[in-house]
Automatic annotation (TrEMBL):
<comment type="similarity">
    <text>Belongs to the phosphatase 2A regulatory subunit B56 family.</text>
</comment>
<dbReference type="GO" id="GO:0007165">
    <property type="term" value="P:signal transduction"/>
</dbReference>
<dbReference type="GO" id="GO:0005737">
    <property type="term" value="C:cytoplasm"/>
</dbReference>
<dbReference type="InterPro" id="IPR011989">
    <property type="entry name" value="ARM-like"/>
</dbReference>
<dbReference type="InterPro" id="IPR002554">
    <property type="entry name" value="PP2A_B56"/>
</dbReference>
<dbReference type="InterPro" id="IPR016024">
    <property type="entry name" value="ARM-type_fold"/>
</dbReference>
<dbReference type="GO" id="GO:0000159">
    <property type="term" value="C:protein phosphatase type 2A complex"/>
</dbReference>
<keyword id="KW-0963">Cytoplasm</keyword>
<dbReference type="GO" id="GO:0072542">
    <property type="term" value="F:protein phosphatase activator activity"/>
</dbReference>
<dbReference type="Pfam" id="PF01603">
    <property type="entry name" value="B56"/>
</dbReference>
<dbReference type="GO" id="GO:0051177">
    <property type="term" value="P:meiotic sister chromatid cohesion"/>
</dbReference>
<comment type="function">
    <text>The B regulatory subunit might modulate substrate selectivity and catalytic activity, and also might direct the localization of the catalytic enzyme to a particular subcellular compartment.</text>
</comment>
<protein>
    <recommendedName>
        <fullName>Serine/threonine protein phosphatase 2A regulatory subunit</fullName>
    </recommendedName>
</protein>
């Protein structure tokens, strides 16, 4: 009965049959929950057949007009809700309880919840309905926990989806949900980390910072990244250099996300790893300090509010201060009050800590500024002469 799939585009069509099917599905959910005794193999086969008939389907992109109101693009503002959800929800609930049930023997069930089933299940993560993705996330997590034999296949398939997303389409609805599942998996990695897990960090997680839609899954990605640093602090250098590689140039809101993540990574970074990457790191932070967008500059200055990061900077001030001094000095005249006062605070920290180093950096900065002024004046003089020469030539 439950294998019959109805058309939900017309709410008045098969109304009675739809209701009977929904009630039957709810009864099945109740039975699975209260069952006492191992499920037989023929039942497992029927369960997978019924679930497959209902949930596996192709997603047809709904044609939507690109509405522009007051210059704002309102397309995709609301997620698309599947009209078949009253039945789909019951089927997903049934599948979740079936996989989680102690009466489901994984050794027998793996014949039916096989690679083909998992492949189709992972394809459903591209659903536009967030309710469906939430169920899929929980079910995938349960399958990963129960069917150990499928774990390498699940990881490999997710890798392929990520690769396609990063380097080809940059479009997928379920990236955040995949990362949430992976965050839990990474949390359970045994030490020392396997080479496969390190490659996943380098080839997938770090390049995931590249797509424009990073904000939709950044929280989950940042959690996965920090898990790696907490597992193995030696990876901090690789991660920080990876962030610098994909650092946004013209997207200020994305840059703020990078600075948030950078703080979390630095929080778990130890001295030796910090020293390996501090030169390129603070060259980037210096650029962020002088960003055209005041929120980027403000977020970069907030790094000094973190005690652990401040201590790392203080210990390596002889290398770091000469790199960032020009940016701090320019920000001391910043138009934004918050950036101005934070810059003065950072200036004071360095001056109180090492006045001699501070004065040496200040002297070099003044000399460089004087040279720049001199070059600027020369350019202006040359340009003026060229203009005069051009004017004479045109008159002649």
């Amino acid at each position: 009965m439950c294998c019959v799939v109805f058309d939900f585009t017309d709410p008045t069509k098969n109304f009675k049959e739809k209701d009977i099917k929904r009630q039957t599905l709810l009864e099945l959910v109740e039975y699975i929950t209260s069952a006492n005794g191992k499920f037989p193999e023929n039942m497992m086969q029927e369960v997978v057949k019924m679930v497959s008939a209902n949930i596996f389907r192709e997603f047809i992109p709904q044609p939507r007009e690109n509405k522009l109101i007051n210059g704002l693009d309102l397309e995709d503002e609301e997620p698309a809700m599947d009209p078949t959800w009253p039945h789909l929800q019951a089927v997903y609930e049934f599948l979740l309880r079936f996989v989680a049930s102690p009466e489901t023997d994984a050794k027998i069930a793996k014949r039916y919840i096989d690679h083909s089933f998992i492949l189709k299940l992972l394809a459903l993560f591209d659903s536009e309905d967030p309710r469906e993705r939430e169920y899929l996330k929980t079910i995938l997590h349960r399958i990963y926990g129960k069917f150990m034999v499928h774990r390498p296949f699940i990881r490999k398939t997710i890798n392929n989806i990520f690769h396609q997303f990063i380097f080809e389409t940059e479009k997928h609805n379920g990236i955040a949900e995949f990362l949430e599942v992976l965050g839990s998996i990474i949390n359970g990695y045994a030490l020392p980390l396997k080479e496969e897990h390190k490659l996943f960090l380098v080839r997938i997680l770090i390049p995931l910072h590249k797509p424009k839609c990073l904000a939709t899954y950044h929280q989950q990605l940042s959690y996965c990244i920090t898990q790696y640093v907490e597992k193995d602090c030696k990876l901090a250098d690789i991660i920080i250099r990876g962030l610098i590689k994909y650092w946004p140039v013209t997207n200020s809101s994305k840059e703020v996300l990078f600075l948030n993540e950078l703080e979390e990574v630095l929080e778990a970074t130890q001295g030796p790893e910090f020293q390996r990457c501090m030169v390129p790191l603070f060259q980037q932070i210096s650029r962020s300090l002088n960003s055209m967008h005041f929120q980027v500059a403000e977020r970069a200055l907030f790094l000094w509010n973190n005690e652990h990061i401040e201590n790392l900077i203080k210990q390596n001030r002889k290398v770091i201060l000469p790199i960032i001094f020009p940016a701090i000095e320019r920000n001391a005249k910043h138009w934004n009050q918050a950036v101005h006062s934070l810059s003065l605070n950072v200036r004071k920290i360095f001056y109180d800590l090492d006045p001699d180093l501070f004065k040496a950096c200040q002297l070099k900065f003044q000399e460089d500024e004087a040279k720049e002024d001199e070059i600027k004046q020369r350019r202006e003089t040359i340009w003026k002469r060229l203009e005069e020469l051009a004017a004479k030539t045109s008159n002649n």
